[in-house]
Amino acid sequence: MIAALVAALSTATAVWLWTGPNTATARLNRLTSVREPFQQRSIKHLITRSSPARRADAWRQASIELCQALSAELSAGRTPGEALTRAITAVDFPDPEALRPVMAAARDGGDVSTALLSAAPQQGGEGLRRLAACWNVSVTVGAGLAALVERVGSTLRSAQAHRRDVTAQLAGPRTTARMLATLPVLGLLMGSALGMRPLAFLFGSLPGLACLTAGIALDACGLWWTHQMATRAENS
Predict the structure, then answer these.
(1) Can you tell me the distance from the alpha carbon of 156 to that of 160, in angstroms, rounded to the nearest whole number?
(2) Over its length of 236 residues, how does the chain's per-residue pLDDT go in tens digits?
(3) Which residue range forms the structural domain that includes residue 47?
(4) Is the N or the C terminus of the chain less surrounded, counting Cβ atoms within 10 Å?
(5) Are residues 58 and 85 in the same domain?
(6) CB neighbours (10 Å) of residue 84?
(7) DSSP tag of 49
(8) pTM for the complete prediction?
(9) For residue 156, is it within any domain?
(10) End position of a domain, from candidates 91, 112, 143
């Protein structure tokens, strides 16, 4: 049994070393993607493969592009309302319908800050909420909107770069956790190959069924716990 376990561990380690993630390559891809001013990515494609994390990331990226477009429009000499309308039209948002009230408020001279706050999703809407605060400060105090938007865009880009760096660093631990979750299966295969008949024990007796149930439960809890820790690290 010890020989089978050692063989299973050696096989799993070899597979991980052969197929494990290249952290340097992942970080290089992150740096390359962050430095593109208007990143050509299909946000709708991200939403079709939807998960809450991908949707939040799509909203964050769209907010960065909105700040960039709005800053460019304001620098070109357009009024804030016209600049915001043109900037929203130029950005591919995950949910364009949510931005229609913002465009209407910008065209008609309405409360743009409130409209931005209403359009911002709970997850990934930090950029829109900060933009709403900038708009409110600009209207109330008379501060330059272009400078405020540029500062917000810079902050959002830095936060996004940090988030992707953390994701790249967590790729290794996540892969290791998945590999460890498959070790029991490799152990069963090795035991069967050595004639120990582990499946007959697991499925043919009450102690075996109890061990199987406990093993699956612990395996699932380990994967869930690892995912929760990685998610908290990404959102910190």
Answers:
(1) 6
(2) 444 444 444 555 544 444 444 444 444 454 444 344 434 444 444 443 457 878 988 999 999 999 999 999 998 888 888 999 999 999 999 888 999 999 999 988 889 999 999 999 988 899 999 999 989 888 777 668 888 898 988 999 988 888 888 878 888 877 888 888 888 888 888 888 888 888 888 888 898 899 889 988 988 888 888 888 877 776 66
(3) 37-143
(4) C
(5) yes
(6) 29
(7) T
(8) 0.60
(9) no
(10) 143
